[in-house]
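Submission checklist for the structure archive. All mandatory fields must be present; incomplete records are returned to the submitter.

[x] Identifier: Amino acid transporter transmembrane domain-containing protein
[x] Organism: Aegilops tauschii subsp. strangulata
[x] Residue count: 366
[x] Sequence attached
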Amino acid sequence: LPRSSCMPCLGLPPTGERWGKILALLPTMYLSAGTCTALIIVGGGSMKILFSIACGPACVARPPTMVEWYVVFVCVAVVLSQLPNLNSIAGVSLVGATAAVGYCTMIWVISVTKGRVAGVSYDPVKASSDVDRTIAVLNGLGIIAFAFRGHNLVLEIQGTMPSTLKHPSHVPMWKGVKFAYLVVALCLYPVAIGGFWAYGNQIPPNGILSALYKFHSRDVSRLVIGLATLLVIVNCLTTFQIYAMPVFDNMEAGYVHKKNRPCPWWLRAGFRALFGAVNLLIAVALPFLSELAGLLGGISLPVTLAYPCFMWLAIMKPGRGTAMWCVNWALGCLGMGLSFVLIVGNLWGLVATGLHVQFFKPAEFQ
């Protein structure tokens, strides 16, 4: 089939190859790169914590620097990312999901069992003005949009599944999505509720894993905390493969389209190593990337909330003025409008509060 006719399978709006790449492929690519960079930061920091736990308080060895931990994580991730496509990493995805369920359960159980830490407070941070409060809300919504970036891979995954008129791929895909989000809810809601109850405003900027290590490293077995940290590392390594795969596919597709021949294994390995090196450079050079999470989430939001509605309209062609036509147009415009509001709000917040730019100085993951 011509590439333009496969746009819906690849998660691209059926607007032609050029506009499909501009409107959908580009946001998916930079969102995948931003996610992998965040995974390098979290995974490298977790490796540092695991080293501290394994070495113990009386350790005399010189611990590697944060940048060196980033390098270790990227090297392992690149080695593990040599599988060719999304179909081949089903087992990797299962391992990552199991690790996520394991460490989420361990974290909230330990936090709730040990009780609230000293000096905990649940008072909300009061903004100085309505403008600051609005900016904070918009930034929070943008971060939530960035956190649920997995939506952008749903159509990529469905595109790899066999589909016929008798057995369309959307039936098992819908069942899988419902089950997946049930598991996500069972993992994240206990972590959010239990973590807030246990730590309140005392939680460190790096998240609840750092809180677990900071507050319970002495009253919880090192083996238990070390196992939870190891599961976080495993999850980051496996998740790296999943979110990087759209970039790998696009790089290889470009080669195949230009050379009209399959991509050799050594070039595939080179593409993956190059992608890992670029993300490592971003993680080291732009340690303030987390401050841009809300903006990145707002920019990529149409891929999740707007494009599917417009794609359905273009593919199914419902009658103008019918209920489904109105609903999809309304939801698509609402998604685009929400994206615009989040982008403006986050840019406004960065201008008002300032961006703490500090190049090539990664913060210590404590």
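[x] Structure attached
Curator remark: Residues 1-13 have pLDDT under 50 and may be disordered. The radius of gyration is 22 Å.
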